[in-house]
Amino acid sequence: MQRRKWIDSKKGSAVRSYVVAFLAVAVCASLQYAVLHLLQADLPPALPLTVLLAPVIISAMYGGAMPALFAAVLALAAGAFLFLQPILNFWIAYRQDRVMVLAFAFISLLIAFMGALLERAREKAAAAKLALQQSDQTVRALLQSASAAVVGFGPDGKISIANDAVFNVFGYRSRELIGQPVDMVLPDVMRKPAMPTDKDVSQESRAMQTGKCRETPGKKKNGDPFPAELTLGSTDTPNGPLTIAYIADIGKRKANEAQALHAAKHDSLTGLPNRALMLELAAQLLGAARRGNARAAVLMIDVDRFKSVNERY
User: Fold this and answer.
1) Which of 48, 75, 181, 298 could link 83 by a cystine bridge, Cβ 3.0 to 4.6 Å?
2) DSSP SS3 for 220
3) Contact by Cβ (8 Å): 105, 53
4) Cα–Cα distance between 179 and 170 in angstroms, integer?
5) Beta strand extents in the chain (DSSP E only)
């Protein structure tokens, strides 16, 4: 869709370029005609066609080679009709007029050539800009589609990009984080650099320190801390290196893990340590005693009729 609009705008720009060329030649020719014939001003013989180079230059800068050639043909026609002596008779014109026309044509061709180069450079710049816009839209779409919170920050620690998922993790809207220090949501990221940013560090060394998943403390908008899972990536941009952080709130997962671990080592009815935990603690105690060349004792307490109560309830 954007490419179609770009092509349509290019066609409209070409038509405008020819209109500008025609108007520029008409204005310059009219002004010179008024100066020469109406005001009876005495101008150098080469000045009329020399001044008509202005529309050619304007057309080359505005539209490129073809509008410049169009302006050059119009200017030659206007010069032959209005300024050359005898009028409309190039072959019997004065020698200086022939030289002037040939010089004008040669210079116009050079200007048209420069206009072609300028037009090509503009087309390349427009194509590069379009590709950059499409790439930017693709990156933004990927960021917004990510389920994890994504923030990007530079060496100064200021957040430059953030997706909408940061609201689910931190409670901030994405626009609230732009320009803020990353320490506001990830206090330990800048204290413990996850990757070197010096130019002397090789890309292999930087790549070894990115892409690793680790746990780090996070901070919500209301100030509550929470455990976060952090994965970092690094990329180079025209504005310098950019660190991309992918953050997930693992508070519920860690709570479930702790609950499962507690259930595996404690009695579900009384909440007291079960045999598995007792054996684990006993092994730790015996190991510590061996290392310290000390003695260890285990006290067993029997509760009467506890088995029947436990089985009943």
Assistant:
1) 48
2) coil
3) no
4) 16
5) 149-153, 159-162, 213-219, 225-237, 240-249
CA distances (Å), origin 8, targets 13, 18, 192: 9, 16, 52
Report yes or no: 260 and 279 within 8 Å, Cβ to Cβ. Answer: no
Q: How far is CA 222 from CA 185, 226, 254, in A?
A: 11, 11, 21
pLDDT tens by residue, 154-188:
888 899 888 888 888 899 998 899 999 998 999 88
pTM for this predicted structure: 0.50
Measured between alpha carbons, how far is 133 from 244 in angstroms, rounded to an integer?
20
- pLDDT greater than 60 at residue 104: yes
Q: Note the pLDDT tens digit of each residue in 209-266.
A: 456 788 889 999 998 999 999 988 888 877 788 888 889 888 888 888 888 888 888 8
Determine the Cα–Cα distance for residues 52 and 21; give it in Å rounded to an integer. 11
* For helices 65-82 and 2-33, angle between their N-to-C axes, nearest 10 degrees: 20
